[in-house]
Specification:
Length: 333
């Protein structure tokens, strides 16, 4: 049902779902700030955040982690929504079509051939993701664009790049291999504000850029021919969607390593919650933030006091989701 306001049409269900997701994000964020080696009460968290009773554990250790899970989850959700809108396929996510593997290849180059600094990891992760996406896009473009062909070729490229990454790790020195394998698990352990400042600015800029083109994206859901008649430049729009999707995923990967399945699951969960005909960006972003926050809390609690990499939890949960999704797609076919 839609509520009509002067000059504005607001869908009630998406609005209600968004409010509920934001409330859940706040609850998970508060839990993350309270949880640690010792439990802090909400009053202690509030006092630390306002500066009346400073706490290094809350403001310097827990708050960066909670903020990173929120922003990175939203970035992965948006990236997944962009690629699923682009391919018009629920399997069209960055971790399925090889973007994550390409970003990992770039990071391996930075670790293996260079000093492996944060700036080098960020730069070469983005380059690796862009190269992998470009290869998949070019191979799938045959007398026109096909989302299904892109997904199938992306899965094949992903398998080949993953094998290549394994070969690099096996040939590396022990210290380099340990660092590379640890980074590949996808983890928010030990992130601090110095690691997050630039990635947050990059993700914020990408969000602003794609938000200016959401109307054109919605028009493409009605069909390419109709979108062209309304003045949408499909080629430029698709290129922008790819670049923003790659930028979001590669930025997250550069800091936390490849955190898989959030980009796959969040857009479809958000779409089903809101009942939207397409894959809207805002529900995907909010759902991605909730999923990554929840996965990170589970990663901290399952084997406490040892914290698992969040990528291990997201892989376990996302694998179950992928099985369900594939089963549903096979039955539909």
């Amino acid at each position: 049902m839609a509520r009509h306001l002067p000059g504005l049409r607001v869908e009630r269900r998406p609005l209600l779902v968004s409010v509920c997701l934001i409330a859940l994000m706040a609850a998970l964020g508060l839990t993350g700030l309270c949880y640690g080696a010792s439990w802090s009460t909400p009053a202690e968290v509030f006092a630390a955040l306002t500066g009346t009773d400073p706490s290094v554990a809350i403001t310097e250790w827990r708050l960066p982690r909670v903020t990173a899970s929120l922003v990175f989850g939203a970035a992965l959700g948006v990236s997944g929504a962009l690629f699923q809108n682009l391919t018009r396929n629920p399997l069209g996510s960055p971790d399925v079509i090889g973007l994550d593997s390409g970003a990992y290849t770039g990071a391996l180059f930075a670790i293996y051939a260079l000093a492996g600094t944060s700036a080098q990891l960020a730069l070469f992760s983005v380059i690796g993701g862009l190269v992998a996406t470009l290869v998949v896009y070019l191979l799938s473009f045959d007398r026109g664009f096909s989302g299904m062909r892109l997904v199938v070729i992306g899965i094949a490229v992903n398998a080949m790049v993953t094998a290549f990454n394994s070969w690099i790790v096996l040939r590396a020195d022990t210290d380099v291999a340990i660092a590379a394998v640890g980074w590949s698990a996808g983890s928010l352990n030990g992130v601090d504000w110095d690691d997050l400042t630039i990635p947050f600015w990059v993700i914020g800029l990408l969000f602003v850029v794609i938000s200016l083109r959401t109307r054109a994206m919605h028009q493409t859901q009605l069909g390419d021919s109709l979108a062209v008649t309304t003045g949408v430049g499909l080629g430029r729009l698709r290129l922008l969607m790819v670049l923003v999707g790659v930028g979001c995923t590669a930025t997250v990967t550069a800091v936390a390593g490849p955190i898989v399945f959030i980009a796959l699951a969040a857009p479809q969960i958000g779409r089903r919650l809101t009942g939207s005909p397409g894959v809207p960006l805002l529900p995907a972003a909010l759902t991605g933030a909730v999923l990554l926050q929840g996965a990170d809390l589970l990663a901290q609690a399952l084997l406490a006091p040892q914290a698992l990499p969040v990528g291990v939890v997201s892989t376990a949960v996302g694998g179950c989701y992928l099985i369900w999704l594939l089963t549903k797609e096979v039955r539909r076919a």
